[in-house]
Write a structure and sequence with these properties.
By secondary structure, this protein is mainly α. The protein is built from 14 helices and two strands, in the order αααααααααααααββα. Helix 3 packs antiparallel against helix 4, helix 3 packs antiparallel against helix 13 and helix 3 packs parallel to helix 14. The protein starts with a helix and ends in a 9-residue tail after the last helix.
């Protein structure tokens, strides 16, 4: 039996140390392979932080929330409550919730404000506007700072997604620990493995803009524009796919084998398509487009259009 087969099909009666080592390695594989619940979020916030340090922070905060949820998930696996995942397909609802949060954050960064329901008009208010509109010129409201703390919330939500790796740690490894107090450990170590790779990926994504040799103002513009559009339009894509999965469940079972043995790259499926579309198309296109806007529309000082 090769190492991949061993990791994906752990034998029974493993020691706690062996369980935790396998969980950690599975987390590393999960973090480095294109997963729809990790890559789009880490890419968006890391590129929006426009620095290696900011990208690492984005990867850490996302993975911290994800790790806490995974610990809770393996606890559920130990006590038998995780079988809800076997009975119900929660992929669709999770996609929708993730998409809503992505779109809301993207809209906030892109437009400079949160979605606002005009409840004040119902109570006789004569004016309806945002506080920013009164105090800040529209050009300065256009792009807000990327709220990195939201990556933690994304991690908590994304942790409810369920795939091959989650199946292994929840239904195979967690029941082996033999103690309810130790049951969160496989999930926590899996999350730590994911964290290691997401910090590295965040650093990579966050350093991309520095390699473009732009000035600080241009880097911020390109980073925020790319992040906001990836979150907003990527979020809409998640919502649409989630609704389709809810309404037409067989869509979630679509898969074309790639011949690889490692989950997340073993088949072309809904998850991989989402990653490629959100990061590979929306994200990269937004990055290139905003970069060209800087180069084509503005002079080196970006004070006026040509």
């Amino acid at each position: 039996m090769d190492i991949i087969s061993f990791l994906l099909n752990p034998p029974p009666n493993l020691s706690l140390t062996e369980i935790l080592i396998i969980s950690l390695i599975l987390g590393i594989l999960h973090g480095i392979t294109p997963d729809e619940h990790t890559w789009p979020i880490t890419f968006s916030y890391a590129i929006g932080s426009y620095s290696t340090k900011g990208g690492m922070k984005a990867g850490f905060l996302f993975s911290l929330g994800f790790t806490l949820q995974r610990g809770f998930l393996t606890f559920l696996g130990f006590v038998g409550l995780a079988y809800i995942y076997m009975k119900y397909n929660l992929d669709g609802p999770v996609y929708v919730v993730v998409g809503i949060v992505m779109a809301l954050v993207g809209y906030y960064v892109l437009k400079g404000k949160y979605f606002h329901i005009p409840i004040d008009k119902l109570f006789g208010a004569k004016e309806h506007h945002t506080e920013d509109a009164c105090r800040i010129p529209p050009c300065e409201v256009l792009h807000k700072e990327i709220p990195l703390h939201m990556t933690f919330i994304h991690g908590l939500i994304a942790g409810f997604g369920f795939g091959a790796y989650a199946t292994i740690i929840t239904f195979i490894l967690a029941p082996m620990v033999g103690n309810i107090y130790l049951s969160p450990l496989p999930g926590i170590f899996f999350g730590l493995g994911t964290m290691i790779m997401q910090i590295m990926m965040g650093a990579l994504f966050g350093s991309v803009l520095r390699a473009m040799k732009l000035n600080e103002e241009d880097i911020k513009y390109v980073g925020k524009t790319t992040a906001s559009k990836t979150l907003y339009y990527g979020g809409l894509a998640f919502i649409i796919i989630g609704m389709l999965v809810i309404l037409i469940p067989p869509i979630d079972n679509f898969a074309i084998s790639t011949g690889a043995k490692i989950p997340n790259i073993d088949a072309i499926n809904v998850g991989l398509i989402l990653v490629l579309f959100v990061v590979g198309i929306i994200g990269i296109y937004s990055l290139i487009k905003s970069y060209l806007d800087i180069k084509i529309k503005y002079n080196p000082n970006r004070n006026e259009k040509k």
